[in-house]
Amino acid sequence: MNQSPPVEKDAPAVPVLQVQELTIRYGDKVAVDRVSLDIPETKITAIIGPSGCGKSTLLRALNRMNDYIEGLTMQGRVLYRGVDLYAKDVDPVQVRRRIGMVFQKPNPFPKSIYKNIAWGLAINGIRDGVPQRVERALQQAALWDEVKDRLHDSALALSGGQQQRLCIARALALEPEVLLMDEPCSALDPISTARIEDLLFQLRDTYTIVIVTHNMQQAARVSDYTAFLDGGHLVEFGPTEQVFTRPKEKRTEDYVTGRFG
């Protein structure tokens, strides 16, 4: 994937990701229905909505993770800096290098802490400066000070919160521009959740982050923009403060105030 247009320093801001009239089906079931959405650069965008509304399906479409799902069909476009991510000449491996993902449950490899980070670099053909990249990624994930003296211990010995930060470091090691996070705190205790949220604030200046969360309080705390989905439809999208305090749609108001259903 080498066709990203050059971005001039003083050029007007263009959304990093643009979803245009996106419809996704699992067989005959419509999971995402004609959604259009612009993801702003170096901001945190939260996607909220009830279970089964299409949040995770939409998120996975942003870096072609849905490619692995048999029977899934898609109409519409997903653009990354103006390039259609689903064009025939676009390599999905390169897409996922630029648009990384962290999943709901921590999924460290049964390897050492160091090899968890270095392995992703190796399979992507990165050989230069690996120790420095590993250290930088762990520092970015606010984990370095906790593990620097035990890099060759098993990653499975880490706590749940540490494992999730390790998975974030693993994604950051590839130096993506966008980081997708699918309910990254749902399996964590409140203290670990607070550490991840603090980390998001630190990463926001460097990365564009899209987070799916079922926790509306978390969305209100960490995000700059919020998209509310219901039944596969995008009901409302805007600055988080506006969506939560002055929603334009009655369905949004009912959802964020707990009267939904």
What labels would you give this structure?
six-stranded mixed beta sheet; alpha/beta
Short description:
By secondary structure, the chain is α/β, with parallel strands linked by helices. It has ten helices and ten strands. Strand 7 (178-182), helix 7 and strand 8 (208-212) form a beta-alpha-beta unit.
Q: What do you see in this structure?
A:
By secondary structure, the protein is α/β, with parallel strands linked by helices. It has a single domain (17-256), classed as 3-Layer(aba) Sandwich (Rossmann fold), CATH 3.40.50.300. It is built from ten helices and ten strands. The strands form two sheets. A six-stranded mixed β-sheet has the order 6-7-8-3-9-10, sandwiched between helices. It has a four-stranded antiparallel β-sheet with strand order 2-1-4-5, with helices on one face. A hairpin with a 2-residue loop joins β9 and β10. α3 (113-123) packs across α4 (130-140), α4 crosses α6 (160-172) and α6 (160-172) packs parallel to α7 (190-203). The termini are far apart. The model is unreliable at 2-12 (pLDDT under 50).
